[in-house]
Amino acid sequence: MRDCLFLPADTPPGLSADSLLYWQAVDGQGRSLRLAECASVLGTRELALVLPMEQASACLVSLPTQKARWLRQALAYAVEEALAEDVEALHLALGSVQEDGRHPVRIIRRSLLQGWLASLAEAGLRIGAIYLDADLLWASGSELLVDESRVLLASDDGLRLALRRDDWPALQTRLPALRPCTEAAPWAQLLNAQSQAIDLAQGELALAQPASSRAWRPVAAVLVSWLCLQWLFDLGQGLYLQYQGDQYAQASEQLYRELFPEDRRIVRLRAQFDQHLAAAGAQQQEQLLSRLQPLIEPLQAASGVQVQQLDYQAAEGSLALQVQASDFAGLELLRERLQAQGLQVEMGSAGRDEQGVSARLLIGGDA
User: Fold this and answer.
1) DSSP letter assigned to residue 366
2) How many CB atoms lie within 10 A of CB 283?
3) Domain named GspL cytoplasmic actin-ATPase-like: which ranges (predicted)?
4) At CA 69, angle to CA 66 and CA 75, rounded to 5?
5) What percentage of the chain exceeds 70 in pLDDT?
6) Closest CA to 132 of 112, 252, 348
7) Within a 10 A sphere around the Cβ of 94, how many other Cβ atoms?
8) CB distance 161 to 134 below 8 Å
9) Taking the alpha carbons of 201, 203, 205, 211 in that order, is the dihedral positive or negative?
10) Full DSSP string of 307-362
């Protein structure tokens, strides 16, 4: 919690050395100070600047997104239609989302706030936060604060209002739920609500980090450095893998051209290769069927002969049959019938077992 520096309701756009401000310390003491006195009295302590509600506006808006990077842009569109001034000339401060899904917004002319901050900085004052006095009033329910010349109103439905004390009696009967603040030192009471008020130091008007936050800067620097190194490592690994992928792609294309030199243009290597494989498979199937056709009649005529295994060598165009017969005469008869079909037949090793004799016949190739 910081000491507060209050600007009066009638504070002009530019502060002078004689401008009267009110300083309220955390320990309870408070007094009016001219701007020229502030530096010597307050020293280098960090202050919360409290602005008069008369110079600002408050509202509740519904935003279509909760993503931080889009909130500022969505906020400008949400409040633009309700404002009489150009939204580009206004400073918008966004509060935390409420239970009903709406966000509280505080609005003030940017040039006005920038002028005050510049004057305070020239006077040597350190501002760590910026609040509206009506925001510091609200705790729960509805509250009001009455001082010598003005009345502040705040409620949990988003109402933030400042009016002259002379105008208060006309509204008092219409707002019976408001509980007046009767503290002897009302400005001291406002210090306690700093944590729940909306800090106007946002966006381009964000203030310097406090010293406690600067203590984390070395840790943040180490973390950022580590992330940069990790990013460089990932980038290098990605480039290396891309290089290897390019090398494999070139090798695959070279092999493809060696296998299929008739293809002059390669558009999709994988798809074209699959087409060649499909065509080769269909061609081999046709060749196998053509090789088997002459074998059908001799095998059907050879009684007692069974084909146990068939091997086809597409590259050599040859068939190898492992057959079994009751005797060697049956095997010889089958060989003769195959030769009668115009086939080149050679009989490989033959042997006898309990079930008869078996042999390997090579058709159209070398035994």
Assistant:
1) -
2) 11
3) 35-179
4) 65
5) 88
6) 112
7) 20
8) yes
9) positive
10) EEEEEEETTTTEEEEEEEESSHHHHHHHHHHHHHTT--EEEEEEEEETTEEEEEEE
CB burial of residue 40 (10 Å; 0-12, 13-18, 19+): exposed
Of 57-61, 124-128, 241-245, 281-285, the least confident: 281-285
Report the candidate in 287, 300, 296, 297 with the shortest Cα–Cα distance to residue 364: 287
CATH of domain 290-363: 3.30.1360.100
Please state, in angstroms and rounded to a whole number, the distance separating the CA atoms of residues 177 and 179. 6
List the structure tokens of 149.
């010349």
Would the pTM count as exceeding 0.85? no
Q: Which residues have CB under 8 Å from 91's CB, separation 6+?
A: 107, 108, 109, 110, 113, 200, 203, 205
DSSP 210: P
Please give the class, per CATH, of domain 3-212.
Answer: alpha beta
SS3 150: strand
The tokens for 349 are 């090793």
The residue among 194, 47, 90, 179 whose CA lies nearest residue 133 is: 194
pLDDT computed for residue 186 by the predictor: 67
Gyration radius from the chain CA atoms: 47
The CA dihedral of 330, 334, 339, 343, to the nearest 10 degrees, is -150
Q: What pLDDT is stored for residue 132 in this prediction? A: 94
Token pair, residue 194, equals 């700093």
Instruction: Please name the helix (run of DSSP H) or strand (run of DSSP E) that holds residue 36, with its range, or none.
Output: helix 35-42
CB 125 within 8 A of CB 39: yes
Residues 6+ apart with CB under 8 A from 183: 189
Predicted confidence at residue 122, as pLDDT, reads 92
Give the helix/strand (H/E) hosting 22: strand 20-24
Residues 92/79, Cβ–Cβ less than 8 Å: yes
- pLDDT, one tens digit per residue, over 55-110 is 999 988 888 877 767 777 788 888 887 777 888 899 999 988 888 888 899 999 99
Contact 23, 30 (CB under 8 A): yes
Listed by start position, the domains of the chain span 3-212, 216-266, 290-363
